[in-house]
Amino acid sequence: MGGGGTDISTRSPAFPLEPMVMLSAVAYATQKIGMVATFSTTYNLPYNLARQLKTLDTLSQGRVGWNAVTTGTRETAYNFGDKPLPDTTTRYEMAHEMVEAVQTLWGGFGENAYITDKATGVFADMSQIKPAHYQGKHYQVKGALPIPATPQGQPPIFQAGPSPEGVELAGRFASGVYANPFTIDEARAYRNVLKQSAIQHGRNADDINMFSGFMFTIGDTYEEALARRMKLIDFMSDEEFYGQIRYLSAMIGVNLLE
């Protein structure tokens, strides 16, 4: 759910397409690719989001995950009314409630409740379908969600962001965490932090898988890929270029702007 900078004169937008529609097309065209959609826990409602993701999980035969993120930019918040962006504590309270409510909705349709008996006309065993009745501070849901269980049961939760609040959210709910460590030692340290968070929330230390991000430029040869990368750098504004230099400085521990 993007909504950051609006100047796209020389740089294509990072999130131009609505993810649910886009991933529906990907699900139709593929059979084995897993799809993780990013949706805000701040500017969505549990029932709508649970239904959308569960529908996509049904269409893809159990290949969907949800990257649950809080919205942290005022530019995005402006697109959802004139209320100010909630503070960090409130946003993460909302995130915990949102995931709880969505997972409760997903879990309401019993694994064996889907009958579809042609002889009797019975579609489902209502004794195995449980309304959510979720009552939180920020979100309330009655349920139930009338979509049968998919092959993976529930879509897995993903999380991104190494803040203490993000680590706690991951420890409670996440099966996967997107990370961007600069060194192997930092990656190992962060992995240990995630393990401890999982244990503190009564889970197995290995319940969370960590995924490192990579940025790449593709070409038929190394020289072609490098030339393409240099061309992309040429298109950068001064602000973007120096932002990249600052990022690289932080990565290697050397101030390249001095």
From TrEMBL:
| Gene3D superfamilies attached to this UniProt entry | Luciferase-like domain
Instruction: Show the coiled coil region(s).
Output: none
The Luciferase-like domain covers 15-236
Q: What class of enzyme is it?
A: oxidoreductase
Keywords of this entry: Flavoprotein, FMN, Monooxygenase, Oxidoreductase
Q: Record's InterPro entries?
A: Diverse_substr_monoxygenases (IPR051260), Luciferase-like_dom (IPR011251), Luciferase-like_sf (IPR036661)
- As recorded in UniProt, its EC number(s) are 1.14.-.-
GO molecular function annotation: monooxygenase activity; oxidoreductase activity, acting on paired donors, with incorporation or reduction of molecular oxygen
Q: Which PANTHER family match?
A: ALKANESULFONATE MONOOXYGENASE-RELATED (PTHR30011), C2H2 FINGER DOMAIN TRANSCRIPTION FACTOR (EUROFUNG)-RELATED (PTHR30011:SF16)
| Protein name stated in the entry | Monooxygenase moxC
Its gene name is moxC_2
